[in-house]
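Record 1 of the preview.
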Amino acid sequence: MKIEDYELLLKLNEIGTIRGTAKTILISQPAVTQRLKYIEDYFGEMIFIRTPKSLVLTPSGEIILEHAKQVVEAELTLKNRLSSSSKEVQGTLSIACSSLISQRFLPKILGNFTNMFPKVTIDLVTGISEDIRKNHKDYHVCIIRGEKLKESTSIRLFDDPLYIFDTEPFPKDALKERPLISFKSDDSMHELVDNWLYHHQHQIKPLRTMTVDQIETCKQFMKQGIGMAVLPKSVSDSMMDEFPHVALELDGKPVTRYTWLSYQEGIRELPQVDQFIKMITSQTFL
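->
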């Protein structure tokens, strides 16, 4: 059994379907099925019952999954110990990062980091901050938006004020009624926007809301005149001079998205993690 086989079992149990797991780990569905069959043959036990909706652990599967978790954790502990004992910066750096930050800022930061420390392997997962929070202990560092992780050490990287954009002007003395385009994000982002709209319902009234998957899609729809869009400053600097916009404020204070770097206590003993934290916290983002 390879460590990858144990990791596959944990991922299958987490996601619950062979198809979803194959999509997540970027290999074909038949390949996942074949590997699962090999693992079950190896143990001589059925690990999952295949139902139309999801995979269900068998009693033997529960025992094997607990063993898989211990193996994966022991492997990670060993790698961390080896890495921390080395004077040279090497090993694996695992990062879970908000999609917006990974697209807008992380490429340059990681480019500089890998040039400086070429022996470090980067293990990067991107997604919505809400999803990253659920599995934050699986990574060396997390870069998330919204509220900080209370059970971790958190450093505020920057504040990202929100603006509402449109191709049509925002009248000062009349109600603006337009469709609202939103992008897939965590609940805290939607709560900020909904709260601001509630307090400004005499000025702006969304006729309907259209939700798209990516923030870039949201921007392009807005630029085509399909409707209004609330966007953070970090992705809209170039639009400030091109499109009518209003800063989101409540009680005279800007409505802002915070960006946090979070990590578990003691993880900075790993040289590659410590060097990455030093590099990213020295950046100027906005």
